[in-house]
Amino acid sequence: MQQYKKNRNFLLLLSLTLSVGGSGCTLQRMVNTAEKHQQVTVEPSPLTTNGESVNFELKAQVPEKLIRDEEVYKLDIYYVYDNEKRENIGTYSFEFGEFLYEDKKPTIIKQLSFPYAPEKSTGQLMVQGRAIDKKDNGIAYTDPKQVAKGLNTTPLLLVRNNDFTFAANKYAQQTDSTGKLIFYFEQNQAKLDDLSDEKLKVLDQYVMDNVPSQTITIVGMRAPGERSADLAQKRAQTLEQYYRQKMKVLDYSGKKVTITAEVQDNTLETLKQKIAATALPKAQKQQVLAILNGEQSEQEKLQALQQTEAFPYLQKYVYPSLQAAQIAFNYNRSRRPDYELYLMAQRIANEEVDADELTEEELQHAATLTPILSEKRKLYEAAVKTTDKWPAYYNLGVVYNEMALKDFRPAAKKSFLEKAVHNLTYAGYRNPTAPIFYSLASAYHQLGEYDKALENYSYAATLGGDEEMLQSIFADKAALEIETGRYNDAISSLRYAGDGYQTNMNLGLSYLLKENYEGAEEFYLKALEQKPNDALAYYSMAIIGARTQNEQMLEQGLRRAVSADKNFMQKAINDMEFEAYRNNQAYKDALIR
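Predicted structure:
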């Protein structure tokens, strides 16, 4: 009996050993098969930056024999950079339901991405397979394999501005201050919609203002083609009735209020005025004005406009701005000496006295008297608490943006930009103008929230303004579109961005990325006429030389770029655009300064 037990234990041990050994052999055979026969392709290769991320498609195919019931084959994708730092990107699991068949091979294709950082420019995209036993979690690995090397950062060679500053301070020249709100309506409607809620809250603040008197002017408008002839009047009446009703409920100060309701009902005449405040090219403006000044009926003119090249712009950016009613407030306040305002403002900022000791305009003027951002912030914060008006929010947003520009800590910069966005948003509710929404779009742009930035660039263009402002809006909108890979959209936006250095540089980059090298060269040469010896323009020309195998252009461009800015030497050394030229004499000569 004892001998039987010994034999039984021996057989169990042998069985277990064979089982484990069999599992290990199976896993090893799987990884050997994978190493020989799996196929991994990456598009694009080298990887290419797209704004603040690197987006790519990775396709993996494995032999059918790797699809098993007891084991699973997985493929890990990761990026190695900066002295073997590893960033995990994703894992493909070759189990039923996770793959499709292509050419009778199990295939997985996915769009993948990881955040861009300058130190990742010279890294490698790697894959490593794992064969795993589902029962005992035994595992075997393939050798790591490089499937793409480095990052192409050419899409980042764009020019953007995002420059906005404090609201003009007119306190020293005048004591009058004007508040303005614009309410937009749905087409053919005169009712306020839910999107007006925030502006109505601002309107309520005007009702509660403790001032001796208010003079209010309401102007109703309608857009070309809207059906009702009295639509502009109805929109003005909607705001007037709202204001008078709120006065009965909220106003206990007994101030004298005068309300005047007007109608801007000559839609074609209003449209002519709006055309002057658009980014349309001169020829398109002239064509539109020629139609509007013609002898046809209004309906005939509107139909003629639909046939013009400018019509998409009119429909998207101009007509919606006329489906509106504007309400303006005028106050009259006296001016106090600067030294008195500054001292009082400091006491308010230090919470030694109540903020309502100064008016909004006085507080904001006091903020302009100090160059220290922390002091400006306190004063504009006091102005926000006291007045709840747009200049206080706007200037506080500018302060936070300035603080973000001066801070190199990523977390702090992000926090400052978020605060800038918060205050600029409230400024936009209270005073919807192109400069304010351009500043909001710029803050979102710097924050990396591209969809919101694009939305606000478009809205800023819709509001209209002077030509220089609109060109800035479209120029930075185009820069964002380049960053996000929308090259055709960028080229369309740049049609309205003027003919300055930024426009020509970004047109050059758009054409370069679309592989229209002759067009790209033409715009870079224009940019160099406007800004001679510009390192970025010459560097971009060197890239065109590399892509077109024009060694003379490559050498001259690199030489001039490095001569103008020595930082471009290290960039050229790491840039994947010149990978094929590392041992080329023209490339080497260009880097000898």
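Summary: The CA atoms of residues 487 and 514 lie 7 Å apart.
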